[in-house]
Amino acid sequence: MKMAEELGNWRRTHYSTQVTPALDGQDVTVFGWVGSVRRQSGITFVMLNDKEGKIQVTLHRAEASAELVKRFESICEHMSIGVRGKVKKMAKSPSGAEIIPVDAKILSLPTLRPAFSVYGGNLPSLEKRLDIRTADLRREKAQAIFSIMRTVLRAVREFLQDNGYLEVVTPKLISSATEGGASLFSVLYYNKPAFLTQSPQLYKEQLVMPFEKVFEIGPAFRAEESRTQRHLSEITSVDIEEAYVDYNDIMSTLERMLRHVLKKIGSECSDEFSRLKANPPKAPAEFRSLTYDDVVSRLEKQGQTISWGEDMTGRAIAKLAKELGSFYYITDWPSSSKPFYIKPDLKNPKVCESFDLMYGPLELASGGSRVSSKSLLVRRLKEQKLRPQAFDYHLRAFDYGMPPHAGFGLGLERLMMVLTSEENIREVTLYPRDKLRLVP
Ligand code: ATP
Ligand code: MG
């Protein structure tokens, strides 16, 4: 066959997972890509995958038309096909049923074949797989990861909407930095300099003025210089911001949101986790909370010195992280280590009302109470060597009465790493971006 066939009037009647032994004898039409082909004496087994799962198609060559046998001869992995046939109860097939084909359409003619099976086994390096990411995403494991992500996103939205947060979408093309200048991507905006947003921080803060409780799930861009297993240049940030609360309230909201996510994936994703051969993490009875000072003194007891004010990197707290295990908070960070919009402690302005949510050595989220006074915000900008003029558009909003507020930013990919036990953030990102990768 030299040309792929047309879809014509063929339409799917069932997804793979709907083809069950109970349908024995029924006519069905299925579509999907071929995961594997096995040719044995007299029989051809084709494993057909669709977005729901897989179903075995079994051709008994002696019983089929010459035309159909010829068609099946050309079937290869990754080809998209349509199959019409009868369901047969079959204890030996993985789903307890198979399809005996009476007709088939070849809908795509692959010219290349990835050097791996979609069902696992030996895999080439991640970088090689990312080069052909679309085919790579057909792997059962990748399918499981992104199916879990769908449930996670649904659970997050459900929790936030049920708790009265308004979903918002804020600009990604912006005129000034939010998280400090170093990791900004600059772009040309009609011949004027502009940037890709590092976080929806300033807009979500402004939006608590009219809406009180807002959330956004959207892209954020970080020009990270170092290439690590947990950093990307483009991330999906889950952000909330809320008026009339402080960082303690927000920590408890974040904890409740994650418990809701864990409950949902626990009840809805058992198939996905068994395909990943992993278990979703268990939440501790309560998320522990240590102050920055607690962590420094614990590390000092272990013979490790941290100069006060330093950000604690994954490696610095590695030993302690083992002890602290799953979800825990580090709170009350030095003001100098956090962005200008975090509210300093009134009694001791050297520290601020801030937290990081950690999982072992991995930071999942950062949040805090925000500065709601314009004059303090200007002072904080200057302390952090930023030009208040560059933030004029933001500062002006404060002239109209900014309520006290607090919020967090959670990296969706970081959360997915923890939920799926993946060590490289690229495995849980459809098309990862880093310093060396801008394609596909
Ligand atoms: P890190 O110290 O791990 O580089 P950060 O403190 O610079 O992160 P924040 O500005 O606090 O990051 O961003 C909020 C959240 O967004 C982080 O807790 C993390 O989950 C996620 N995040 C930030 N930068 C990246 C990145 N480059 N790649 C993946 N996730 C990121
Ligand atoms: Mg942070």
Layout of SSEs?
Blueprint: E1 27-40, E2 43-49, E3 54-60, H1 66-73, E4 80-89, E5 97-106, H2 126-131, H3 133-136, H4 140-162, E6 166-167, E7 173-174, E8 185-189, E9 192-196, H5 201-211, E10 213-221, E11 234-243, H6 247-268, H7 270-276, E12 288-291, H8 292-301, H9 318-324, E13 328-331, E14 354-359, E15 362-369, H10 374-383, H11 392-398, E16 405-411, H12 412-420
Parallel strand pairs: 3-5, 6-10, 12-13
Antiparallel strand pairs: 1-2, 1-4, 2-3, 4-5, 7-9, 8-9, 10-11, 11-16, 13-14, 14-15, 15-16
Residues 179, 222, 224, 231-232, 235, 237, 363-366, 409-411, 413-414, 425 line the site of adenosine-5'-triphosphate (ATP).
* Terminal CA distance: 30 Å
User: Helix proportion of residues, in percent?
Assistant: 25-40%
Q: Which oligomeric form is depicted? A: single chain
In CATH, what is the homologous superfamily of the largest domain? Bira Bifunctional Protein, Domain 2
Instruction: Supply Rg.
Output: 27 Å
In the CATH scheme, the class of the largest domain would be Alpha Beta
Q: What small ligands are held by the chains? A: adenosine-5'-triphosphate, magnesium ion
Strand fraction: 25-35%
What string, H for helix and E for strand, traces the elements in order? Answer: EEEHEEHHHEEEEHEEHHEHHEEEHHEH
Q: How many discrete domains?
A: 2
Which runs of at least 5 residues are low in confidence (pLDDT < 50)? none
User: Helix count?
Assistant: 12
Which architecture name of the largest domain does CATH use?
Answer: 2-Layer Sandwich
Major sheet description: 8 strands, mixed
Identify the strand order in the major beta sheet.
Answer: 6-10-11-16-15-14-13-12
